[in-house]
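Objective 1b: paired records.
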Amino acid sequence: MRAVIVAAFVAFALTMALTPLAAKAFRRLKAGQPIRTDGPQTHLVKAGTPTMGGVVFIVTTVLAYIAGHLVLMALPEEVDGLVLTRPTGFTATGIVLIGLFVSCGFVGFIDDWLKIRRKHSGGISGKAKVVGLSIAATIFGVVAVYYTGSIDTTAISETVATPFISFTGKDVGFLNVTKIGMVVVIVLLVNATANGVNLTDGLDGLATGASMMAFLAFLIIGFWQYRHWCGGPRPAANLCYDVRDPLELALIAGAAAGAMFGFLWWNTSPAQIFMGDSGSLSLGALIAGLAIASKTILLLPIIGALFVICTASVMIQVTSFKLTGRRVFRMSPIQHHFELAGWSEVTIVVRFWIISGIGVAIALGFFFADFLRIAG
């Protein structure tokens, strides 16, 4: 747990220190966020606010991940005569997750750069964005499923949350898919979650706070799985989690959560810097990757309840307009509907954070209830 705490603190401290410096540098480079003229008019005052803040927390998360491993390497291999089973070096699971995080962030960086260059809110096309995310997710999926074994074909659980395996070798609650099927699932989940976070981003601090809660949830899940891990020194009396490198998942989630805490200081209203697509796409991809690697895919839409709501509002709006010519909301995603209805930005953000927190609490409730049900 010490390594996770160190990673979270390093990510927080570095992001707190580097974000204002990045904001000043981006401002000098005139890397300001173009504002849509057809959106809420209150957003026009935000024109020129530095964007691409995602670059900062991508870098700090990676550095914090490395710092966490330095702590793991320094910790004793044996405590009270018990040989500990934990990763001391970098694992395949961690490398593929960090690779997914960085590569999807690069797709968003291209989108941000084109927006700045063209001085228009339209960057790369939606199709190009999907292609870029799909390529990154496919590489991640193929490496994880075919070469490293970080993800196997039992990554989808029939239960609400938890993949267990008993000491008799009998799988409990697994739904098997083929390797190709697993890669397809990974591509779909990465695209859905990355675009969900991207659609949620739009108000100061909204996506940052919601992502922070999601990472905290996966930190708890990863550490709990490590404490009851089939490969650990003290597996559960009856059942244990059949996942790959759960401590690594907690370490990455902790680093990302710490970075979100630091970034929120500067991103909350009035934001001094925006995360941009480089931030939102990388965050969504990492959240999906953690759900896949921890085999809690069915918990993903609950942990990301706010992302699901914002995405659904866009789908409803587009479908309604195409079929009937009428709009259900004044504007989508739904947070802008409430802006046009007269709600203040801070009020919307705080209330949406509450929704996100409720989703995370329900997901963790399912997770631990499933553990108690099967283990009891």
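Objective 1b, second protein:
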Amino acid sequence: MNQDTQLNTNREYKDRLFKFIFREKQDLLELYNALNGTAYDNADDIVVNTLEDVVYMGMKNDISFLLQEMLNLYEHQSTMSPNLPLRGLLYFAALYRKLLVNHEDLYSSRRIALPLPRFVIFYNGMQEEPERMTLYLHDAFPEKYKADEADLDCKATLININAGSNHDLMKKCRRLEEYSLFVEKVREYQHKDYSIEQAIDLAVEACVRNGILEDVLRENREEVRSMLLTEYNEQAHIENERKIAADEAFEQGVETGIKQGIEEGIETGTEQFAALTERMVQEGRTEELLRAAKEKDIREKLYEEYGLNR
């Protein structure tokens, strides 16, 4: 299956698996209670206001809803990004704008009451992260300024939901624990060298046998398979794009460093370093050359190796 085919796999299933699993208000209420230590029991109090048609940088927010004067934004992430608070800010701006469409004039002498924003990221990526951490928008501002100097900020709470993490939270929300176990089972089969398609199918069968997300997997097997396969393919695409970008940045850095090294060598009359650069580039030793440009000890050893000592 080529990359273009992978990225177009069953695009009719637009929801992501996390959102699909928590599509029922009762399950969403259980998750909310588990996170906030509350005991609300009327799922009808939840008003889901997810922005289905709002896309920023190719991503949709998974779930947003109002409950008890709180505006909750829940995101699932399998990759760690320091830009999550910025995304949260943009989503909240769009959500508040939607809430205020038919509201009184913003220039009114009366203060407009707003629901309290809460942004939670459920992380289950392969990169090791703490059980819980807080990310701030102000970390992206210039370092010379202190956080309290900013007139705008946004906080995001990241919660690690990989199997074995946040034990107490998982026990309070069985649905979340089952989702974690299902993803872990898929990875377990991947590590046994099954293809992603085979790993998903085997994980579904194993989880159904063991009562893990049984109702979801039995009734929606093909939807779940397609959503998860699309997510994995998109993640592979993102990682590939990152690798290409990193390689290009490295190559550009090497080229710039070599050019500067040659220019500096000529300017300072060190034909010795210019000759060293030419030889090492021909042999593909560019990383070592960059270190040599910065460290005299390495440079002297290379001069000796190439017989360039004066």
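Residues 13-100+113-140+150-172 form one domain. The mean pLDDT is 84.
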